[in-house]
Amino acid sequence: MLKLIQNEWMKLWSKKASWIMAGLLIAILFANAGITKWIGSTSPAPETEWQEMETMNLASAEDQLQNPDIGPAQQDYYEGQAAIAEYRLANDAAPFKTESLQQQLLDGHMMLSLVTLFTVIVGAGIVASEFSQGTIKMLLTRPVKRWKILTSKYITTMLFALLFVILTFGSIALFSWIFFGVGDGAFLVWNGSEVVEGSYWVEALKLSVLSLASTWMIGTFAFMLGTVFRSSSLAIGVSIFLMFVGVQLVFLLQRFEIVKYYLFTHTDLTQFYTGFMPIPDITMAMSLTVLTVYFLVFMVISYWTFSKRDVTA
Amino acid sequence: MSNEKIVEIRKLSKTIGNKQIIKNLNLDLHKGEITGFLGPNGAGKTTTIRMMVGLMKPTSGDILISGKSIRTDFEDSIEKVGVIVENPEMYKFMSGYKNLVHFARMHKGVTKARIDEVIQQVGMQNRIKEKVGSYSLGMRQRLGLAQALLNNPEFLILDEPTNGLDPAGIREFRMYLRKVARENDVAIFVSSHLLSEIELLCDRIAIIQNGELIDIKNVNEHQQSRYYIEAKPSAQAKQVLEEIGFTVQPHENGYLIDTEPEHIPGAIKLLTAAGVDLYVVQPHRTTLEDQFLEMTGGGEIAQAHTK
């Protein structure tokens, strides 16, 4: 199996497209850091004092807590936000500025949709391209069972995603260190009963792992489409379309019970820690269950079609 | 030539939709023997071959390679098989060498030394580090042969291997195949619709039509010696020949007689003595093409290099 993955990895990086994607990712992150710096340095008005911001945060969190529609996860979140804001004001503990290495890393998980995009391109093409190049004949007439070949391709896609995540955070760290440097401030967390100092990079790691659920699901979906339809453009098109429209559909389906079983209600796992929940009464356990079921369905369809298919092309 | 069985095709059938493409096919292939697989377009050659290499699943029946079933024991049965299915499509964005490394990793025990050996064997050492995209069709064909030889196959299977090659390329490819069959004592099964090619390359020919195997014959089987005689007046010539005791068949502008060469001078003397003018006396060989057309009843066979 290791040799098969080695093969897939070799093929992947022998293609120019992979290097272009890596270059593009780094370029976008560089531009993002640069633009943030540029806006910061040209904005004429001095920034609002952080105390003022925290007072506003406190007010809005308390406001939210009055809202009867919020779910338990949101309740926890806003209680935590209110407590942290109070603590900051009382103890004169400033948060990180946006223009700091730490805050950039904390927000880094939002950049992972780029990784999703590139993973979709790779996952959609990794099986489909073998068919379109005709190399599938050469690949399947080896003493290796088909499920092993498909597994090596799936693992390679996921390794690619992982590598790009590391690349993303590496670039963010490097570029924000160059542009902003390490900022002052304290990272605070609400542990349910009191406010304590936490580690910002553990938090950044947690949020990015949670964001990866979406990369993983959409990547797997693209992989399935590429395997079933043997057309990478179709698979890329449909996956990217769903990536953008799928989430919007959550709002349209909001009033129906079915929304709770809809994939895109659950793909953003960070929602349990960022307070933004379109469907408030779902839980983490429920989301993980739904995602697992979708994953299994995608996998069964992929493996079934790939190992049953008569290769005629 | 050993007569050891290496491949056994047993009651092989394939149905796609409600059309039966392959009907109850039985065939054995032996070590060191090149078997041609001939049939009109759409007869089921490619389908049979794809089932033999695991690209398609048989509807019923089985294929045993070295005694191992391709259905239940795929990895072991195909371990010692080398395959070229039509034009060998390689990864164009990688070098020839990387392509070979890629396929070598999928077999057990193919070493780096073996890869180099195969490269030597097909004479590609000068350009093996270049991208496959820059190769000519002939070179790709050679690389295709190289990848099929990597695992020291006991059985080589080729589907229309010379599609798209020019006559020089075909000749070169044929020479390589011969060399491989002789040096490595492998069984080779090669499908083609090009009659001349099969005739030049193969020891034995299996003919398929409408999914059924209609004949298996050896190429250099001793043929009944026949002569073609053209003489005038032809009615008189016929009479003389019949008097000698030949069975006379009209053919084109003359007659065919079945006889051994030693009877020919006597027959000529008798014909001349009877006052018949001889125009042509020549041995008559039925070509594979004639036999093939006879057996398949004409049909849409592609003629070799008629252009």
Account of the protein in words:
The complex is a heterodimer of chains A (313) and B (307). Chain A has 313 residues and is an all-alpha fold. Chain A has helices spanning 2-14, 16-42, 50-66, 72-91, 101-106, 112-133, 136-140, 146-179, 200-229, 232-253, 263-266, 271-274, 284-308, and strands spanning 188-190, 195-197. Chain A contains 13 helices and two strands, in the order ααααααααββααααα. In chain A, strand 1 (188-190) and strand 2 form a beta hairpin. The relative contact order of chain A is 0.14. Chain B folds into two domains: 5-218, P-loop containing nucleotide triphosphate hydrolases (Rossmann fold, 3-Layer(aba) Sandwich); 226-283, Alpha-Beta Plaits (2-Layer Sandwich), CATH 3.30.70.120. In chain B, the strands form three sheets. In chain B, strands 6-7-8-3-9-10 form a six-stranded mixed sheet, sandwiched between helices. A four-stranded antiparallel sheet of chain B has the order 2-1-4-5. A four-stranded antiparallel sheet of chain B has the order 12-13-11-14. In chain B, helix 4 crosses helix 5 (137-149). The longest helix of chain B is centred in the middle third of the chain and has 18 residues, at 167-184. At the A-B interface, helix 1 and helix 7 of A face helix 2, strand 6 and helix 3 of B. Chain B: Belongs to the ABC transporter superfamily.
Total number of distinct structural domains of chain A: 1
Question: What is the string of SSEs of chain A from the N terminus onward?
Answer: HHHHHHHHEEHHHHH
Q: Strands across the major sheet of chain A, in which order?
A: 1-2
Count of discrete alpha- or pi-helical segments spanning 4 or more residues of chain B:
10
Produce the secondary structure layout.
The complex is a heterodimer of chains A (313) and B (307).
Chain A: H1 2-14, H2 16-42, H3 50-66, H4 72-91, H5 101-106, H6 112-133, H7 136-140, H8 146-179, E1 188-190, E2 195-197, H9 200-229, H10 232-253, H11 263-266, H12 271-274, H13 284-308
Antiparallel strand pairs in A: 1-2
Helix pairs in contact in A: 1-8, 2-8, 3-4, 6-8, 6-9, 6-10, 8-9, 9-10, 9-13
Chain B: E1 5-16, E2 19-30, E3 34-38, H1 45-52, E4 60-65, E5 68-69, H2 74-77, E6 81-85, H3 96-104, H4 112-121, H5 137-149, E7 155-159, H6 167-184, E8 187-192, H7 195-201, E9 204-209, E10 212-218, E11 226-232, H8 234-244, E12 248-251, E13 254-258, H9 264-273, E14 277-283, H10 288-296
Parallel strand pairs in B: 3-8, 3-9, 6-7, 7-8
Antiparallel strand pairs in B: 1-2, 1-4, 4-5, 9-10, 11-13, 11-14, 12-13
Transmembrane segments (chain A): 20-40, 110-133, 154-180, 200-226, 233-253, 282-306
GO molecular function (chain A): ABC-type transporter activity
Protein name (chain A): ABC transporter permease
